[in-house]
Amino acid sequence: MHIINNFKRKENKYIININDIDNLISSLGELISVTDSGITNTLYFDTDVYKFFVDGIVSKDKKFKVRLRKYDSADKVYMEYKIKDEDGMSLKHRILMTDDNSINILVNRTISSDELGYIYKLNSDIPNDEVKLLIFNIMVMKLHPTLQTSYIRTSYENMDLNNLRITIDTDILYEPKNSFMWNFDRSEMKVFDLLNDKSIVEIKYENNLSIRVKNILLNLDMNPVKFSKYINMLLDDMLINYIKIK
Question: Cα angle vertex 168, ends 88, 82, to 5°?
Fold first, then answer.
């Protein structure tokens, strides 16, 4: 898997029918090569007043996300802090750590010097000061878990085309969370009806999207959409609970 820990890029999202995936991949042909495929589990965090969720709906300024991400059921987890501006440019910081590290940072809001040294070693390609700053910025936010998503992600890339990376997410499930506990039993999770027979395609690149890729997307009548798994699935759960109460 090609992992980039700190990067700034443009991201376009598309929602397509699952049956159209093969046509998209065959149209892109030799422009891309598959790099990885497997289950991606993501645990989202927010403030007590759901600031990230609300800002994602109403704010026209920068939007923030804090999440943990596991690939399959790995024993390590990535902590991610993502900022997206009004022009759709995303800046993402991510560091690797253990589950215990993430619990101490996000729940106990404390971390020992030994733990910090271990995290430095895991992220030796990132300056220690940047790692430390990210950890302490997240600690002071006083966040709590709100949602877990699980989906099968297949990744493609062509680093010669402005660091082009394409991900295709299928079998997308979710589960509201109020405690810090991963659920790897997908049979217990909910199907998001809007995406029941669809997939989310994300095209990520630096600077400008390749003209060749643009033309392929136009020929396939693919138009970018604004869609957030976090916002839409949390909103879906809130509406379901509201209907139950009524």
Answer: 35
In our burial notation (b when 16+ CB lie closer than 10 A, e otherwise), range 101-127 reads bbebbbeeeebeeebbebbeeebeebe
Range of the domain at 19: 6-245
- CATH number for the domain including 240? 3.20.100.30
240's tokens: 């379901």
User: Any idea what DSSP says for residue 92?
Assistant: E
- Beta carbons of 96 and 4 less than 8 angstroms apart: no
Q: How far is CA 145 from CA 3, 194, 243, in A?
A: 24, 23, 23
Domain membership of residue 226 (yes or no) is yes
Q: Are 171 and 184 in contact (CB under 8 A)?
A: no
Residue 221 lies in a domain: yes
What CA–CA distances, in Å, run from 66 to 6, 88, 212? 14, 17, 34
Q: What is the pLDDT of residue 74?
A: 72
Residues 131-176: tens digit of each pLDDT: 999 999 999 999 999 999 999 999 999 999 989 999 999 999 999 9
